[in-house]
Design a protein that fits this description.
Length: 85
């Protein structure tokens, strides 16, 4: 563990001190938790989200061949009516 020094304004210090006392912990531990949550995040939650995302496209219907899609769009009465004119 490394040691660092922070300058906190009075309002922030008072809030952290009160919260530490109510949770029976230290201001340092509160700061470590906040930094961990903000910059590292909850690894377990991130893993769950990533695992849910993996394979999401497997459920989607396959994309049709582009040439076949264009041919299917061109089929129909409209093209026949244009040719007949």
């Amino acid at each position: 563990m490394k040691r660092t020094q922070l300058y906190l304004d009075e309002d922030l210090w008072d809030t952290l001190h009160e919260r530490a006392a109510s949770q029976r912990t230290t201001v340092s531990e509160l700061v470590r938790q906040a930094v961990r949550e903000r910059y590292i995040g909850n690894l377990g939650q991130r893993m769950k989200v990533m695992q849910a995302f993996v394979g999401i496209r497997k459920q989607a219907s396959p994309m049709p061949d582009a040439a076949e899609l264009v041919r299917s769009l061109r089929r129909g009465g409209r093209l026949d009516r244009l040719i007949a004119k």
